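Thread amino acids onto this structure.
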């Protein structure tokens, strides 16, 4: 994910997160609808419509969790 949204408006922050997910899934018509809502709230939609590169792979466990043991007893 990209940097955390630099806004204090929780609705705008939520719309930006939703927009990023829609871009990753390729739902351009829905991205346009979210862009419209951002403009109504006085926020400028991001120009970059490329999915953000994931920094962690799916094989690494989330922070604070341990990986399952591959051994079964």
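Threaded sequence (73 positions):
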């Amino acid at each position: 994910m990209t940097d955390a949204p630099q806004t204090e408006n929780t609705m705008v922050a939520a719309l930006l997160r939703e927009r990023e997910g829609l871009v990753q899934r390729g739902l351009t018509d829905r991205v346009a609808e979210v862009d419209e809502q951002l403009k109504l709230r006085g926020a400028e939609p991001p120009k970059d419509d490329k999915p953000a590169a994931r920094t962690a792979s799916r094989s690494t466990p989330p922070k604070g969790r341990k990986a399952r043991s591959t051994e079964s007893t």
